[in-house]
Amino acid sequence: MEIRRTKIVDAFKKTSYGEPINVKGWVRTKRGNKSVNFIALNDGSTINSIQIVADVDKFDENILKSITTGACISVNGRLVESLGGGQSVEIQADEIEIYGTADDTYPLQKKGHSLEYLRDIAHLRPRTNLFGAVLRIRHNMAIAIHKYFHEKGFFYFHSPIITASDCEGAGQMFQVTTQNLYNLKKDENGNIRYDDDFFGKQTSLTVSGQLEGELAATALGAIYTFGPTFRAENSNTPRHLAEFWMIEPEVAFIDLQDLMDLEEDFIKYCVKWALDNCMDDLEFLNKLIDNGLIERLKAVVNTEFVRLPYTEGVKILEDAIKAGHKFEFPVYWGCDLASEHERYLVEEHFKKPVIMINYPKEIKAFYMKENEDKKTVQGTDVLFPQIGEIIGGSVREENYDKLLKRIDELKIPMKDMWWYLDTRKYGTCPHGGFGLGFERLMLFVTGMQNIRDVIPFPRTPKTANF
Ligand code: 4AD
Ligand code: MG
Question: Which candidate in 70, 80, 132, 315 could, as Cys together with 102 as Cys, close a disulfide (CB 3.0–4.6 Å)?
């Protein structure tokens, strides 16, 4: 009789000892002696591997020999209470079927590979305990995000991936074309002609879904996007990817205060979700990667974030310099704060997350609402311990004339912006939103140090493997 497969996560919850059971998975380790083999089997449903006990005289010698690290097997047996410490149950094997062997070229034979090496074998690294934990948490964070916004009455809105506009105006876009790059059509001035290109114009991969998100928010009231975004910035840092996922809520009728409340509430919800739903994986990461992790997550859930105007932040940093603190980059009113400055404020000065607001308009994007001082805009960055900037957002300039003036000043091509300006032309309203970098959230929640290790297949300058 065929026994239906039980996932290992569910097997651990059972107490029906003696019951026939089938589990399938990949062999993590095998050890044993002349009379009995112990196989640690993992099927990805949990960080915990189940112990399979195989009496040597019950099995063909060749079968036991081919059960090596990395092999995939199916085990029929009986659930028994585990006498050793650690796990609650194990399986006394009756029959073992081998689905796939793994010979001694299998790259994950030994434990303790470096993270750099694992990036080179990113096609196999999900089979390690570490990446299993990271990927299960990644799934859980995505679910938490959808659940949060759904419960709050936000609608999931699908902004396009291919676009003709540069939301951040930073010119960091990857072009999308079907033109023959060896034979580009050019006009008399030597400029590339796009009229014959697939879309009949120059198009790129989106850097942000915000502009389209604003169209939706000014119709549906509150929306969020959650999708891949692309930045061709040559930043080789542990916190930048060329392809990353972003969550961008956009809400009508909110002001700066509401926006900050939403940012704080949302992040706390996600972190709490991890604590409530991913404890096995977090405990593993806490042991292996960062033994302050769980404490830090709990602290964020229970702390009120600091709300700090940029001008005050600069003053704190200037005072720190006067008191002898050394930064690599200079600090002055008007500078774009570097990660070292943000981390000083968060990790050393306040020792908690900081929402920085009211930035000089020169260092922020064209769409941010100007304050009455005409020098600053209602931008917000949420700064986190270990990470630096995790969220960037703002109240939007809803006044048609002011927005147009800013677009002019920054020489943003108007022909690409008419549809965006229409939101301000017809029934404009106060509104705002933010973008959370999904992988930055993942860095925080997992304690991993490098953003390449919290996304399955990282894309960074000079690397696009798998
Ligand atoms: O601050 P950014 O550039 O803001 C925007 O794109 C706005 N349009 C968002 C909005 O208001 N709707 O990016 C938002 C967040 C950053 O705070 C950071 O967490 C993440 O996206 N991010 C990156 N994450 C990984 N790699 C990169 N290269 C990133 N660039 C931004
Ligand atoms: Mg930003």
Answer: 70
